[in-house]
C-alpha cells in the first residue's frame, strides 16, 4: 500500500514544507536498523475476548462497528493528544494514544481490527505524513505487531469498506459518536442512518461496563494509588504554592506532573479551588491564589495507561489546620458521605446513596437555619431547597470514563440495583458562596466536598481510596506528616 506523494501533488504541499528532491527520496530509505521483534500481548488482551463475546450475544448475527475515532483539532494543524473512544479501548484493550482512525468490527464469528499499519521506508509517507509518518509520529505497528499486541486479526483500514460491503456481510450497527467518517460510511452501506439501532449499541457498550472484571478492578486500584502520590505531592508543595502566587495553577501542575509520570494523563481536568472558588463546581480555570487560612478543594484523578481513572476529592486546609467554621462544615459533609458509603451495598439502588447523603446534608442545613422548610420537606419530591447548597448528585459510575457508563438506561443507572463489581463515587458537598446571604455568616466562602471511590462487594463495599485520610484530624495529621512538620 502506498500513499499519495505530497511532493508531487501541489494540493498537498503545506505552505511550510520544502519540496523533497529526487536525491533525498533515494537517500532517505537507506541505512536503517531492522524493526524490533513483535511486542508481547497487552495484559488487557486476556480479558477482551470475553467482553466481546458478551456484546456479540446481545446482537446475534450482526456486525458491530466500533471506531477508535480520529485526532481532534486543537487549532489549525495542531491536534490534541489522541485518546481512543472508551468503548474501543474497553473492547480492544488499546489504551494510551493508540490507535487513531482504527476500527474494531465485532462480527458474528470473528473480530477484526482495521488500522493504518506502518508503511515501508521507501513510501513517501515515511517522511511526509505528519499523521502517520515514522519521522513525524515515531514507529507505528505493522499488522503482525498489532495482532501480537491485541491478539486480534488485523487488516489495513483500506479494506474496511469492501469487507463491510461484501456479499453476505451481516447487518451493521455503528457507534455513531466515535468517528463521523466511519458513521457516514456505515450509513451509506446500509442505505441511510439507523439511529435507533445504533443507539441500542451505544447503550449496550455503556451498560456492559457497569460491572467491572478483575482486571478492571486492579487497574482502578493502580489509578487510585497513582492519584494518592499526586495528592501527597500537592500537599508537600502547598507552602510553595502559597509563596509563588497563582497557587491553584501550581497545584494543578504538580498533580498533572504525577499524572503524566505515573499514568497516561489526568482522567479529567483537575479542579484546584482555593477559598470561594470551591463553590464553583466546575472550577477548572485554576488561576487563583492560595491563602493559608483558606481551604483547597482538590478534585483530581490519575488515568492509568489502560485509561481507567480515579476520581478523588479532598478539601484541605492550606495552612494545615481547619478553622472552627471550616471544621463544622467539613464534619457535616463527612457525616453525609459516610451515610452514602454505608448505603452503597449490593441490592440497594444507586439513588439510595444519594438519598442517604442528602438527608444528612439537609438536616445540617436545617440546624444551621438555612432552609425555608423542614429538612424532611427539603428532601421530598416537591422540595429540593437543599440543592441551593449541593446542586450536584452524590454518586456516579467510575471506570474508563470519569462519568462511566454514561449511556446506560436510567433503570440500570440511577434506578438500577447495585451489584458486586460496580465502582461508584460517593461525593457529597456543601457549598456556601461568599455572596450567599442565606448562609450563616461564618460559613460564607466555604465549600467542602469529600469524594471517594467505592467498589461494591458481595457483603457491602470496599473503599478503594481508603489510603486518603478523611477525618479532619487525620487530614491535618496527613498534611503535617507529608510536610514533615
Ligand atoms: N471530578 C468530576 C466528578 O467528581 O464527577
Ligand atoms: Mn466524581
Ligand atoms: Mn471528582
What is the topological layout?
Layout: H1 22-27, H2 45-58, E1 63-67, E2 73-75, E3 78-79, H3 86-92, E4 103-106, E5 111-115, H4 125-128, H5 134-137, H6 143-150, E6 153-156, H7 160-165, E7 172-174, H8 180-189, H9 195-207, H10 214-236, H11 238-244, H12 247-262, E8 265-266, E9 271-274, E10 295-300, E11 302-303, E12 312-317, H13 324-343, H14 350-367, H15 375-379, E13 423-426, E14 429-432, E15 446-449, E16 452-456, E17 461-463, H16 472-482
Parallel strand pairs: 1-7, 5-6
Antiparallel strand pairs: 1-4, 2-3, 4-5, 8-11, 9-10, 10-12, 13-16, 14-15, 16-17
Helix pairs in contact: 10-12, 11-12, 13-14
Could you provide a short overview of the structure?
The protein has helices at residues 22-27, 45-58, 86-92, 125-128, 134-137, 143-150, 160-165, 180-189, 195-207, 214-236, 238-244, 247-262, 324-343, 350-367, 375-379, 472-482, and strands at 63-67, 73-75, 78-79, 103-106, 111-115, 153-156, 172-174, 265-266, 271-274, 295-300, 302-303, 312-317, 423-426, 429-432, 446-449, 452-456, 461-463. It is an alpha+beta fold. The chain is globular, with a radius of gyration of 26 Å.
Describe what this molecule looks like in 3D.
35% of the residues lie in helices and 14% in strands. It is of the alpha+beta class and 485 residues long. It has helices at residues 22-27, 45-58, 86-92, 125-128, 134-137, 143-150, 160-165, 180-189, 195-207, 214-236, 238-244, 247-262, 324-343, 350-367, 375-379, 472-482; strands spanning 63-67, 73-75, 78-79, 103-106, 111-115, 153-156, 172-174, 265-266, 271-274, 295-300, 302-303, 312-317, 423-426, 429-432, 446-449, 452-456, 461-463. The longest helix is centred in the middle third of the chain and has 23 residues, at 214-236. It has 16 helices and 17 strands. The protein has a 5-stranded mixed β-sheet with strand order 6-5-4-1-7, with helices on both faces. It folds into 3 domains: 1-27, no CATH class; 32-207, Creatine Amidinohydrolase, Chain A, domain 1; 214-483, Alpha-Beta Complex (Creatine Amidinohydrolase). Helix 10 (214-236) packs antiparallel against helix 12. The protein is globular, with a radius of gyration of 26 Å. One manganese (II) ion binds at residues 311, 396, 425, 427, 451.
